[in-house]
Amino acid sequence: MSELQALIFDVDGTLADTEQHGHRVAFNRAFAEQGLDWHWDERLYGELLQVTGGKERMRFFIERHLPAGTFTAAELDALILALHPLKTRHYGEILRAGEVPLRSGVERLIREARAAGIRLAIATTSVPKNVTRLIEHSLGEEALGWFEVIAAGDMVPNKKPAPDVYRYALNALDLPASQCLALEDSDNGLQAALAADIATLVTLNDDTRGQDFSGAALVVDQLGEPDDADWITLARLRQLHAHAAEPSQ
Ligand code: XBP
Ligand code: MG
What residue's CA is closest to ligand 1, atom 7? Predict the structure, then answer.
């Protein structure tokens, strides 16, 4: 049987609740800075989350929610390319202000895994800068070195639910999928990890509760801390991983 060698973490929604309090706010600030009167409220943003990637999400919004012909194809491309760096800058300011803490149990589990010699990687659709900033501002600058691989954003041709970003991470770790476990929060993320054959633990959040998580090794509310009724230890992850590797009857 293949022993667990590495954990591959999704970022948005998994390490921290970045979407509604971070990315959404940053998109709205970018729209205002560009002189656009668009505002994404929490409900609309919850729907837009079905599309991963900030540039792809803005394109989806414009194509689905604005009157046809509002922009020519060339104007649309140019607008998205202009907005996305503004949004990334605003998002960085939100992280720098410490407004998006890590989710319960994330730091504890990362430290436990490191202490046990488990390798760590990231697989996300968000841009690399957003990942490094979140890690720096929440775990400290030295924590950047804890993650051997940060597979992110446009480093792969197709974003989640495509498996590309997970395959990229496996390749960079030089490990087979059977020696890794993914941690995700969304149906798109779960599909991406499963399509790369990686057993996956899902931690739910308010935007993803109610999605279809068939195929997950386990679905929980949070990783949790020792005072919580249920919390996820590295020993539990090893069990889940071993169980997921058993041939189905
Ligand atoms: C995360 C995302 C990201 C962010 C925005 O999905 O969809 O697109 O919302 O990121 P996942 P950028 O957690 O499944 O990786 O604006 O940096 O693209
Ligand atoms: Mg996510």
Answer: 52
Q: How far apart are CA 63 and CA 85, in angstroms?
A: 20
Q: Give the Cα separation of 124 and 246 in Å (integer).
A: 28
Beta partners for 197? Answer: none
Question: In a structure prediction context, what are the per-residue pLDDT tens digits for the chain, which is 249 residues long?
Answer: 589 999 999 999 999 999 999 999 999 999 999 999 999 999 999 999 999 999 999 999 999 999 998 999 999 999 999 999 999 999 999 999 999 999 999 999 999 999 999 999 999 999 999 999 999 999 999 999 999 999 999 999 999 999 999 999 999 999 999 999 999 999 999 999 999 999 999 999 999 999 999 999 999 999 999 999 889 999 999 999 999 988 664
Element housing 213 (H / E): none
Q: Which of 14, 40, 52 to mutate to test the pocket of ligand 1 (most atoms within 8 A of CB)?
A: 52
Ligand 1: residue whose CA is nearest its atom 17: 126
Q: Which residues are catalytic?
A: 10, 12
Q: 59-74: buried (b, 16+ CB within 10 Å) or exposed (e) per residue? A: bebbeeeeeeeeeeee
Nearest CA to ligand 1 atom 16: 54
Taking the CA of residue 13 as reference, the ligand 1 atom at the shortest distance is: 13
Distance 187 CA to ligand 2 centre (A): 9
Cα(51) to ligand 1 centroid in Å equals 9
